[in-house]
Amino acid sequence: MGKTLVIDIDKCTGCGVCELVCSFQHRDEFNPLKSRIHTTIFWQQEIAIPVVCLQCEDPWCGRVCPAGAITTKIDEVTGARVVTVSEEKCVGCKMCMLACPFSTIVVLDKGYAEKCDLCGGDPECVKFCTRGALKFVEPELGMIAKKKGIAERLLDSYKEVKY
């Protein structure tokens, strides 16, 4: 199985560098509104959560696309599954935006749908994430890290409870 983008929310500070790097990579401008990754900060809970396309196996955005512009391919180098949008076929109807339960596909000023494409197998957001909250790894490694994080949070919860 190929690599996947993994997010460790315990390490994310909400700095926004991933958004800036993404918008610069794809749009040649530093504009978080035009990024393909977005971080939501929950101030009261003191947590930041980056949200990016999950590269679904059977993407809902692709199911509803009337132009057949959204397809899934496997990257030859990394083996990663990537849901892609054909700029030439996309008619900008925004049906994909309505279908995506994570709101990670958008139609902006260019008139066609845009979403994370894993930067051709070498995600820029991962390279510039100084805290290591974003990783591009084999899924098994990502699951191990996620389970470890959950276990650490449980351990912290147990330590807080006084009997």
Topology, pairings included?
Blueprint: E1 4-7, H1 17-27, E2 37-42, E3 47-52, H2 60-64, E4 70-74, E5 81-85, H3 95-99, E6 106-107, E7 113-114, H4 124-128, E8 134-137, H5 139-160
Question: How would you describe this structure to a colleague?
Answer:
The chain has 163 residues and is of the alpha+beta class. The chain folds into two domains: 97 residues, 2-Layer Sandwich (Alpha-Beta Plaits); 62 residues, Alpha-Beta Plaits (2-Layer Sandwich), CATH 3.30.70. The chain contains five helices and eight strands; from the N terminus they run βαββαββαββαβα. The chain has a two-stranded antiparallel sheet with strand order 1-8. A two-stranded antiparallel ribbon has the order 2-3. It has a two-stranded antiparallel sheet with strand order 4-5. Strand 2 and strand 3 form a beta hairpin. The protein starts with a strand and ends with a helix. The model has no long low-confidence stretch (mean pLDDT 89).
CATH architecture label name of the largest domain:
2-Layer Sandwich
Low-confidence stretches: none
The pLDDT mean sits at 89
Number of strands: 8
* CATH topology grouping of the largest domain: Alpha-Beta Plaits
The helix/strand series, from N terminus to C terminus, equals EHEEHEEHEEHEH
What is Rg?
17 Å
Supply the number of structural domains.
Answer: 2
> How far apart, in Å, are the first and last alpha carbons?
45 Å
Strand content: 15-25%
Q: What is the strand arrangement across the widest sheet? A: 1-8
The CATH top-level class label of the largest domain: Alpha Beta
Which structural class do the helices and strands define?
Answer: alpha+beta
| Biggest beta-sheet profile | 2 strands, antiparallel
Q: Give the overall shape.
A: globular
Helix content: 25-40%
